[in-house]
Amino acid sequence: MRHDLTNIRCMSTLVNSGFGFNFCWGVYQEHYIQENIFAGATLSQISWVGGIGASSVFITGPFQASMVRRFGLRPVIASGALISATGMILASFAVSLWQLYLTQVNILNNEGCSKFVPLRDTNYRNC
User: Fold this and answer.
1) How many whole angstroms separate alpha carbon 36 and alpha carbon 18?
2) Which of 8, 28, 31, 117: disulfide with 64, CB 3.0–4.6 Å?
3) Which residues contact 80 (CB under 8 A, 6 or more apart)?
4) How far apart are CA 113 and CA 11, in angstroms?
5) Residue 111's pLDDT is what?
6) How confident is the model at residue 125, as a pLDDT?
7) What is the pLDDT of residues 50-104, one digit of tens each?
8) CA–CA separation, 127 vs 85, rounded Å?
9) Please, are residues 49 and 101 in contact by the beta-carbon 8 Å criterion?
């Protein structure tokens, strides 16, 4: 029973960290607008980052599922965590809007899929 609760807590932490970036995008958006980080960018252009990011989480699902079958659950989740850390660091250096699209949308949200899809499709006892 204790092992099951530990697995459930770990899976909840992984899923929440993957989706947390999407759910708190409004905080980032407000900061970018108030501080005028991306000069010349409109509110609509900045808001597209969050919208595209939230919708792109599941796009790489088939790819992630095949990676889990090939390499196993732990390497895929570990690589997702490493990509996530890299994406957050690179997003902090973004000085133009295209860099934010590249880091925030592609890197951070695709790693969210690398955590969620394998956990959804796998029995937690096999983790």
Assistant:
1) 27
2) 117
3) 18, 111, 112, 113, 114, 115
4) 13
5) 67
6) 47
7) 777 777 777 777 777 788 888 887 888 788 778 877 888 888 898 888 998 888 8
8) 22
9) yes
DSSP 15-69: HHHHHHHHHTHHHHHHHHHHTT-STT--HHHHHHHHHHHHHTTTTTHHHHHHHHH
Buried b (16+ CB within 10 A) or exposed e, 10-41: ebeebeeebbebbeebeebeeebeeeebbeeb
Confidence of residue 26 (pLDDT cuts 50, 70, 90): confident
Q: Residues 15, 127: contact at Cβ < 8 Å?
A: no
Q: Quickly count: other Cβ atoms within 10 Å of residue 110's Cβ.
A: 21
Name the most confidently modeled range: 16-20, 25-29, 42-46, 48-52: 42-46
Closest Cα to residue 113, out of 24, 19, 10? 19
pLDDT for 92 equals 86
State the CB neighbour count (10 A cutoff) for residue 98: 9
